[in-house]
Design goal:
globular; mainly alpha; 64% helix; two-stranded antiparallel sheet; 4 strands
């Protein structure tokens, strides 16, 4: 079985944020944004994702909401973080009077950032899967070989980043990539919950699966609404 390398969790998470910021700055050059607008969008993305990712854990301990340690402690969910980051960016764009679509330019940096972040989870020994006898099973703190679901997810986001890069190059799914990415990730997360040791709350499904299913519906609706707004109406002949 594989052993965990001694990398640092915090260093990898900081690397994930730094790489995402650099990639967005590079891919967003064609957006014609001012430095202030760039700053507002980055702040909105970081603040929204950070707050939303932490909220589910804080609701389990309401007293932690008023504690600085409660906000910076371990325990975050990417599903909520993505939604929070999306809303944070939209709010920042409204405040900074940004009229152009930024989602396509965010999609690849977000995917690469999460891919690195999941490696931080792998090295931190959290978010692991159920027991397995497969040769790539990893032993974490309990010494039991388990699915390295963090690595599976990291690979998912790397593949998603590659596919979205190709779509950008081809001009496919213009102004829709970030929403389609969220939908695909929620679907992926729904499926991989079956090999994660989370409590089953109803119908054999986990809390995360219900959230993932809800996000799939939400972003399909949002995508349809946004697409209908940007697609020119057909003219009658």
């Amino acid at each position: 079985m594989l052993a965990l390398p001694p990398w640092n969790y915090s260093a990898l998470m900081l690397l994930a944020l730094a790489v995402s910021a650099v990639l967005f700055r590079a891919t967003g050059r064609k957006l014609s944004l001012t430095p202030a607008q760039y700053g507002a969008i980055m702040l909105g993305a970081f603040s929204g994702s950070f707050i939303a990712a932490r909220l589910p854990y804080l609701f389990d301990d309401v007293s932690a909401l008023c504690s600085w340690q409660g906000w910076v402690g371990n325990g975050k969910t990417i599903l909520f973080g993505l939604v929070g980051g999306y809303l944070g960016v939209e709010l920042a764009k409204w405040c900074a009077d940004v009229k152009v679509s930024t989602g396509d330019r965010f999609a690849v940096p977000v995917a690469i950032g999460i891919a690195i972040g999941r490696l931080a989870c792998f090295n931190g020994g959290c978010c692991f899967g159920t027991t397995t006898s497969l040769p790539w099973g990893v032993t974490f703190a309990d010494g039991i070989p388990r699915h390295p679901t963090q690595v599976y997810e990291s690979l998912f986001h790397v593949v998603a980043a590659a596919l979205m890069t190709y779509c950008l190059w081809q001009g496919w799914f213009k102004d829709r990539l970030i929403r389609l990415y969220f939908i695909s990730y929620a679907g992926y997360r729904f499926l991989t919950e079956f090999i994660r040791p989370e409590p089953r709350i109803a119908f054999g499904l986990t809390w995360y699966q219900f959230i993932a299913a809800g996000l799939i519906v939400l972003f399909i609706v949002v995508d349809q609404v946004q697409t209908s707004r940007t697609t020119p109406a057909a003219t009658e002949s």
